[in-house]
Design goal:
The chain has one helix and four strands; from the N terminus they run E-E-E-H-E. The protein is mainly beta and 97 residues long.
């Protein structure tokens, strides 16, 4: 049966892991992000960035955790247009009326 409610990720899932393997954060510009694995319907996962609050980070991990968060100036999207290949007939999109 289809479950229309989203799966909630527990904040305590990673407590048994060592601190180095626990939740990953980055700061881009002045915005803090938590890197999470979002579950997919096929059982896999995709990495996502979720905007996070620095005060919440301090409350959850202590005041020294913010100093260990990697800092970046911004995002850069690099297209992969060099290693392209034509679509095969089986993978092409067909449009019908």
């Amino acid at each position: 049966m289809f479950n229309p409610l989203p799966t909630l990720l527990s904040a305590t899932q990673n407590q048994a892991k060592p601190m180095a393997e626990q939740d990953e954060f980055i700061r881009v510009g002045t915005t803090l992000y938590k890197i999470v694995d979002q579950p997919l319907i096929d059982g896999g996962c995709v990495k996502k960035r979720i905007a996070w609050n620095s005060e919440t980070l301090r409350q959850d991990y202590g005041k020294d955790r913010m100093a260990t968060v990697p800092k970046y100036d911004g995002f850069c999207t690099v297209p992969d247009h060099v290693a392209t290949s034509p679509l095969s007939e089986s993978s092409s999109i067909s449009m019908s009326r």
